[in-house]
Write a structure and sequence with these properties.
Elements lengths: L2 E8 L8 E4 L3 E5 L6 H15 L10 E2 L2 E2 L17 E8 L4 E11 L4 E11 L2 E13 L3 E7 L5 E6 L1 E3 L2 E3 L13 H14 L3 E4 L10 E2 L15 H11 L3 H13 L4 E7 L2 E7 L7 E3 L5 H5 L1 H13 L5 E5 L10 H14 L3 E5 L3 H13 L14 E6 L9 E4 L17 H17 L1
Parallel strand pairs: 3-20, 3-21, 14-19, 19-20
Antiparallel strand pairs: 1-2, 1-6, 4-5, 6-7, 7-8, 8-9, 9-10, 10-11, 12-13, 15-17, 16-17, 17-18, 21-22
Length: 435
């Protein structure tokens, strides 16, 4: 099974200089607001779309409910489109490794993107390089110098790109049969496979309606705003025996104040409710409960669906899974992802503002905690990155390494230190009043 193991980028959003992150089974991004965490977290979406058959541009700005900006200038550092954006991805199946790098340029007079440079490597060996020779028109096709896997340079030729994928035309490229097209196509397929399935759950999630129509078909996709969580829960309840519903309900009861989540049916419609811990006949519609209780619903439902279905593989991107929850529940949310990593092969890229989320990861490593007698979480399972909001800092992204006792080799100054700073300020004020 192919997994995405590294992302790299330059002149992308606020990241002017080359930066990269390694992706582990559980990769976590922390940092202040507007530091660039979301831009990193969403980058696999851009790549996934660029490799798809539906791509209409190398870096498509609007698709499947995702919005990356009004134009290419919104993606590039300092809004200087002539500089282009360089992106890279490495994928591995444990035995083999494929690395792809792209530079995407922009012709403002035509409002057109085009791939300026492309490079593919397999297991560290040069496979193919396509480099713009500064000739050609993006409207009809650029001209490229091409170098193959045997390091044979070819005269300039026209190479077509569909999204980020190069498509060779034998009639337009001399020596086409010698260019390692088969190997390069496999490389593209391997990286594309590492991004499939790709799921994204954003920081703005839709609460279930006060009542919902019971779905008459199988709902398989949560959606980027989690809007299908309740319908997926209803489908399990009506057609699969309701085991997911029971597990989700129990998670709410155990971690969110004793109120158990449940569904109530009324003809062809249903409601998501919370049952009182003292009297189960008393219910409150989820719409009338705290916002955090509805925001976490897609997180818990997806987790339980995957566990019971034995879902494996793919990359899951989640922004602020703890959104609007009391800090006391942040560790419980972290446990969902830790459990998924230990029991399956799915990988997670999480952007969070929750100190307790990070502390729970460190605690589980120190405890050598297992779920249901499985293996324990290790430092090798986790990558934590601090994204610096100082645009002059180099590098902007720094890895925080964990040891087998949950300790860290580095911690950024002032990050998750607000509680200590506030206590110190209170003590200073108290001393001043006492004087």
């Amino acid at each position: 099974m192919w997994h995405l193991t590294q992302l790299s980028f330059e002149n992308y959003r606020s990241f002017e200089r080359p930066e990269s992150i390694e992706l582990r089974p559980l990769t976590v991004l922390i940092g202040r607001n507007s530091s660039g965490k979301s831009a990193i977290a969403r980058l696999p979406l851009l790549l996934h779309r660029g490799f798809s058959r539906d791509a209409s541009a190398p870096l498509e700005l609007e698709f499947d409910g995702h919005d990356f900006g009004a134009s290419f200038t919104d993606l590039v550092t300092n809004r200087i489109p002539t500089r282009g954006i360089t992106l890279g991805a490495i994928a591995s199946d444990g035995s083999n490794e494929v690395a792809l790098n792209f530079t995407v340029g922009y012709w403002q007079e035509f409002n057109l993107q085009a791939v300026r440079d492309f490079r593919a490597q397999r297991n560290g060996a040069h496979d193919c390089e396509v480099r713009w020779d500064r000739q050609g028109d993006p409207r009809s096709g650029l001209s490229y110098f091409i170098r193959g896997h045997e390091d044979k340079a070819q005269p300039p030729g026209v190479v077509r790109f569909h999204g980020l994928s190069p498509i060779y035309d034998p009639s337009g490229v001399p020596g086409f049969e010698e260019m390692g097209q088969e190997g390069m196509s496999e490389g593209l397929d391997d990286v594309a496979a590492s991004l499939s399935p790709l799921r994204y759950l954003g920081p703005f999630r839709d609460a279930p309606g006060r009542d919902e129509r019971i779905p008459e078909s199988v709902v398989r996709d949560m959606g980027p705003r989690g809007g299908n969580a309740a319908r997926m829960l209803a489908g399990d309840w009506l057609r699969q025996g309701g085991r997911v519903l029971r597990n989700v309900g129990e998670w709410y009861r155990e971690h969110l104040g004793g109120w158990q989540l449940d569904l109530v049916r009324d003809g062809q419609r249903f409601s998501v409710v919370l049952r009182s811990p003292t009297d189960p006949t008393i219910t409150v519609n989820l719409r009338d409960a705290g916002v955090g209780l509805s925001q976490v619903l897609p997180v818990v439902v997806q987790h339980e669906l995957d566990r019971l279905a034995g879902h494996e593989g793919g990359l899951n991107i989640v922004e602020q899974p703890e959104l609007h929850l009391h800090p006391g529940a942040h560790g419980s949310v972290a446990d969902l992802y830790i459990q998924a990593v230990l029991e399956g092969s799915s990988r997670f890229l999480i952007e969070t503002h929750a100190e307790n989320f990070i502390l729970r990861i460190r605690r589980r490593i120190a405890e050598r905690h297992t779920f249901h007698g499985g293996r324990a979480l290790t430092p090798e399972d986790v990558a934590i990155y601090w994204v610096n909001d100082d645009l002059q800092a180099s590098p902007r992204i720094r890895r925080i390494n964990l040891d087998d006792k949950g300790g860290v080799d580095f911690w950024p100054k002032g990050v998750f230190a607000e509680d200590l700073a506030e206590v110190q300020a209170i003590r200073r004020a108290q001393r001043e009043l006492a004087e």
